[in-house]
Amino acid sequence: MNIAIAQSGGPTCAINASLVGAYAEALKYPQIDAIFGSINGIEGIINNDLIDLKNFIRSNDDMELLKQTPSTVLGSCRYKLPDEEDDTSIYEKIMNCFIKHDIKAFFYIGGNDSMDTVLKLSAYAELHKYDVRIIGIPKTIDNDLCATDHTPGFGSAAKYVATTVQEIVCDSAVYSIESVTIIEIMGRHAGWLTASTCVIRANGVNAPHLIYLPEGNFSVDRFVEDVKREQAKHKALVIAVSEGIELDDDNYRSGVTDNFGHKYLSGIGKQLENIVRQKFGCKVRSIELNVMQRCSSHICSKTDIDEACAIGAAGVRAALAGETGKTMVFKRISDIPYIIDIVSVPASETANKEKFFPKEWITPDGTNVNEHALRYFLPLIQGENVLRMRNGMPEHFKIKEEVLK
Predict the structure, then answer these.
(1) Can you tell me whether residue 373 is helix, strand or coil?
(2) pLDDT in tens, the chain (405 residues)
(3) CATH number, residue 266
(4) What integer pLDDT is reported at residue 258 of this predicted model?
């Protein structure tokens, strides 16, 4: 039998580690011959665009280098499978690719929409008696996948964000004048990444002074009052805000949308900066961390990378045990000591669903998070990887561009 692995959705620091975990585990089993990589997610299966990973990942050194490489080495996509009743041709193309290459197990590394693909493909294969097992391996820096304690990629993103905020706090405190610094952090509907900035309190840093999440009801008037109150306490005020915060005042809404009519999320920091400048006239700046949150592998969490490998390997074992239509997930057993287990759940428990930040972990006034959040986040950012360096910079694994075209 042969297997295929694909990566989908937004890149992370750990998605290649899950690829390594699945690849290395597959090498252990003599019944598995070729290990295919699908170029650009499920699109590679649809277009019969596969590579044999054994021709590219040839040694343990290659695997270690790939583990420290951010982004998706196989390329990614944001392709949503149609419902079977709307278009069966896509499903037949996928199954024909599996048959052509004798692929008996397919592993899809991705987030909410990718688990929708796992769910639909496994249901189609089972209904039409195709002999292939479909397993989802989670990833997303948003940490919004249901049924799992956390997602690979989140811990490293949280570590980068928290470290950056801690450094910004140091930078903002050097002048004698009052200042406000607003840091915009990824999170469309769920505020996990923004909330994770609270971990710098474990280092004795009393910041961010205000934290705003999409799970709260944001009010411009209340924001102004919050800033006024906190300015009386802190000369250099630092605020963390999720990109998905919605302003309740039409005077400050941009109304800008993309070609699909979706509201542009980036820019909330700049809007809040303008509000502070108008209302207070003090020194104010906004900082949008943007894609650095998901590609800064130089400060990745060793816990995150190790777990990403482990959950990829667990996916292979689940498929070989006969499972299909499943998503591999983490179950937390304890915070101290930090212990997790890896199990599988039906993909229906993760597909097209979002896990929101617990409202009971948000302070009653909606401007911060409590100790429950700190206990949850701290284990996920622990440990540092020893990176292979070249010319003073981290070295990254590459597949030749002509292969990926």
Answers:
(1) helix
(2) 999 999 999 999 999 999 999 999 999 999 999 999 999 999 999 999 999 999 999 999 999 999 999 999 999 999 999 999 999 999 999 999 999 999 999 999 999 999 999 999 999 999 999 999 999 999 999 999 999 999 999 999 999 999 999 999 999 999 999 999 999 999 989 999 999 999 999 999 999 999 999 999 899 999 999 999 999 999 999 999 999 998 886 655 555 554 434 454 458 999 999 999 999 999 999 999 999 999 999 999 999 999 999 999 999 999 999 999 999 999 999 999 999 999 999 999 999 999 999 999 999 999 999 999 999 999 999 999 999 999 999 999 998 765 665
(3) 3.40.50.460
(4) 43
How far is the C-alpha of 342 from the C-alpha of 393, rounded, in Å? Answer: 34
CA distance 266 to 287: 11
d(CA 40, CA 98): 16
For residues 80 and 384, give the distance between their C-alpha atoms in angstroms, rounded to a whole number.
36
Do the domain assignments include residue 362? no
Q: If you ran DSSP here, which 8-state letter would residue 82 be given?
A: P
Strand 339-346 to 179-185 pairing: unpaired
In one-letter notation, the amino acid at residue 147 is A
* Whether residues 135 and 7 fall in one domain: yes
Q: Are residues 201 and 306 in the same domain?
A: no
Task: Extract the tokens encoding 28.
Answer: 């252990």
Residue where one domain finishes, among candidates 295, 325, 342: 295
Give the Å distances, CA to CA, from 353 to 7, 26, 146, 348: 19, 30, 6, 9
The domain of 392 spans 2-141+298-352+385-404
> Is 192 found in the same domain as 129?
no
Q: Do residues 187 and 205 both lie within one domain?
A: yes
Q: Extract the tokens encoding 266.
A: 């980036």
Are the beta carbons of 152 and 67 closer than 8 angstroms?
Answer: no
Q: Tell me the three state secondary structure of residue 334.
A: strand
Same domain, 223 and 267: yes
Amino acid making up residue 397: F
Residues noted as catalytic: 142
In total, how many domains does the chain have? 2
CA dist., res. 276 & res. 285, Å (int): 9
Please give the torsion angle defined by the CA atoms of residues 213, 289, 8 and 126, in that order, rounded to the nearest 10 degrees. -10
Asked if residues 56 and 399 have their Cβ atoms less than 8 Å apart, the reply is yes
**CA distances, 55 to each of 34, 35, 107, 388 (Å):** 10, 10, 19, 22
Say whether both 268 and 345 belong to one domain.
no
Q: Which residue has the tokens 């299909």?
A: 324
